[in-house]
Write a structure and sequence with these properties.
428 residues, mainly alpha, two-stranded antiparallel sheet, 16 helices
Length: 428
């Protein structure tokens, strides 16, 4: 391929891939509204276009003789997908539709956004604009979630199929355009942790104030979902970000003590604003906590009885929706992997996310770019939340998470360097 033809081809592919990514993240924000007002048909058209774009990018990379370099994380991802496919077979023979839908749901939530960014020709300029677009979309969702909670809470109740989840005890929960408090909670949590990572770096006054404002918006949005596991993930994610940052700058003990005291004061303020809810978090006496604990205990028992797993699709929502024989219902994402894929699957799962954590830490200590710190904290937060809820099924939160992972970690087209070397530390 001549240089002139290749250059023209590269520009066309850049336009197609970037447009596809912007459209994909926009669809993830409004997918449930589209589904509620127009039905699944229009939603599936959007997913289909995303798959077509993904296939196109793979073909282009093949024609160009694999210029996108294989990263260690790719090997872990391929290994995890193979394990999932193998453990889909038992369910496929007994309930084909459940196995296929279960696997495709996993693919949509992380493999598609991961690969879309992975095989896109993103220069430094485009990567920063993609991050801005992602932050802007979740900001819109978070702001409306806060407004909705106080002034517009009933608007979308009629088009949602899960209104029971909009309540905690006697109170309401914010859900925004996503039509689910849980997806809003973890989407806001992820972006809140990322903004905190930028906040603690050296910033000019405008940048500092912008990050503080965004961090507070995402924090309040998370709080108003009244999702206990997102609170835990948020706190642990920020804690890991702080510890990593302090280790990097070799902070003294006095400053560390002041920061920890500040965190305690923030928790105290939250407790003062919502005393009843915080009491329930500590005592775990509400019906939701009791049900989670019961499901968790049941999942452990089933795993011990079936250490090799029951088969993909035999836990979680597929059991409920498709009446899968021999399955059980557990909410914890960790336990779903344990119950479905057994000990081999859970080892692959832990290795995969452990690799993301190690790569993020290594890249941050080499480059000090806050995006690596943010991905590190978000990974810890999501992993913590997955002990209680099926976080990896929350399509909006996970799509944006995998987009950030791919932006921050991977090699790009024609590049001999990692992304962090051409990512400006400022995203605004």
């Amino acid at each position: 391929m001549s240089t002139a033809v290749f250059s023209r081809f590269k520009k066309i592919n850049t336009i197609i891939s970037i447009s596809g990514l912007f459209f994909f993240f926009l669809l993830m924000i409004f997918q449930n509204l589209v589904k509620g007002y127009f039905g699944n048909e229009y939603l599936f058209i959007g997913y289909f276009l995303g798959v077509v774009l993904l296939v196109y990018l793979f073909i282009v990379d093949f024609i160009r003789k694999g210029t996108v370099k294989i990263h260690d994380l790719d090997r872990f991802l391929i290994f995890f997908i193979i394990i999932q496919l193998i453990w889909a077979l038992p369910t496929f023979f007994s309930s084909p539709r459940a196995a296929v839908i279960g696997f495709m749901y996993n693919a949509r939530n992380f493999f598609i956004p991961y690969a879309l960014v992975r095989f896109s020709y993103l220069g430094s300029f485009n990567k920063k604009w993609l991050i801005r677009w992602m932050v802007f979309l979740i900001f819109l969702v978070a702001v409306y979630g806060i407004y909705q909670y106080y002034f517009d809470w009933e608007r979308f109740l009629g088009i949602s199929v899960a209104t029971a989840g909009f309540f905690y005890s006697e109170g309401r929960r914010a859900y925004s355009f996503l039509l689910t408090p849980l997806d809003l909670a973890f989407s806001s949590m992820i972006m809140g942790i990322v903004m905190f990572s930028y906040l603690i770096e050296k910033n000019k006054i405008f940048s500092l104030l912008t990050h503080i404002f965004l961090f507070l918006i995402f924090t309040v949005s998370t709080i108003l979902t009244f999702t206990r596991s997102a609170y835990i993930g948020f706190v642990l994610g920020i804690f890991v970000v702080l510890v990593t940052f302090l280790l990097k700058i070799r902070v003294n003990i006095k400053l560390l003590f002041i920061i920890l005291l500040f965190i305690i004061i923030l928790i105290g303020i939250g407790w003062g604003l919502f005393p009843d809810f915080f009491d329930k978090i500590i005592r775990l006496e509400d019906s939701s906590a009791i049900e989670h604990i019961s499901n968790f205990q049941q999942g452990i028992r089933v795993f011990l009885q079936n250490p090799l797993g029951l088969g993909l699709g035999k836990s979680g929502w597929t059991v409920v929706n498709w009446n899968v024989g021999g399955g059980i219902y557990v909410e914890s994402a960790i336990q779903q992997v344990m119950v479905e894929s057994g000990i081999i699957g859970i080892i692959a799962f832990i290795l995969f996310f452990g690799k993301i954590i190690l790569i993020s830490i290594s890249n941050y200590f080499k480059n000090e770019n806050p995006i690596f710190l943010g991905v590190l904290g978000a990974t810890v937060g999501i992993f913590a939340g997955s002990f209680f809820l099926p976080v990896y099924y929350f399509s909006t939160a996970m799509s944006f998470y995998w987009g950030l992972v791919a932006i921050s970690i991977f090699y790009r087209e024609g590049a001999q360097e990692l992304v962090q070397r051409d990512l400006d530390k400022r995203w605004i």
